[in-house]
């Protein structure tokens, strides 16, 4: 009789709205075969209070040290800190699950690094839908991909491109398109808002051919992403309306659930979907 598999050791980099939600569920034993062994947080006092009721509060460690103790590192950080966790994780041959996937475009050499060390970069779907269908279409020929994102103005406040163009969203009464361009340009201007555009581009035709519109829309209460794909195998039209996180309106509640689903897939006996 075969023995049970050794549990995968998980470290969570960042205990904000997403990281804490994932850590809490893993600590509660909801993901069989996944064991929470460490976490990293900027504010250790706040992190200790947030995890005080865990069955086994994870030790807090520097970002670079997570790869020394874990098999899988879930990255839930501001994009500026991406490399600090990604480089040691991939250098040590670990599995990296980045939520700041847009930052990967600025560190594309890490893909080759992962190939050299045997590491893997697994990007959760996040607040999007249909990436399995886009990946399947990409095995043939995709002609075009376009995504239109609409968010309540509060979900876009603080974006660098808005500051550069002196665009104020205060008191906005009508929908306003604040960006139109490629996915690569979108993530540069909105690094905390459209990681989904980069995930879509990597599943399909790349960050330079994937077209993106971003709207600040006071008429919506959900973060909404509409995607149109044309290809030689199928034409796809998809829309998702995500409920914003109470802790961070820039991201949807489903993002943490997507990370949990991606982790569960690592140990599941039955896996559904491409």
CATH structural class of the largest domain: Alpha Beta
Distance between the termini: 30 Å
3D shape? globular
Backbone structural class: alpha/beta
Would you identify the CATH architecture of the largest domain? 3-Layer(aba) Sandwich
DSSP, total strands: 10
Structure characteristics:
2 domains; alpha/beta; Rossmann fold; Dihydrodipicolinate Reductase, domain 2; 274 residues; five-stranded mixed sheet; single chain
Q: What does this 3D model show about the protein?
A:
With 274 residues, this protein is α/β, with parallel strands linked by helices. It has ten helices and ten strands. It has two domains: 8-127 and 254-267, Rossmann fold; 131-242, Dihydrodipicolinate Reductase, domain 2, CATH 3.30.360. The protein has helices spanning 17-27, 44-50, 66-69, 82-91, 109-117, 131-138, 160-164, 183-189, 195-203, 254-267; strands spanning 8-13, 34-40, 72-75, 95-98, 120-121, 142-151, 176-182, 211-216, 223-231, 235-242. Helix 5 links the parallel strand 4 and strand 5 (120-121). It starts with 7 loop residues before the first strand and ends in a 7-residue tail after the last helix.
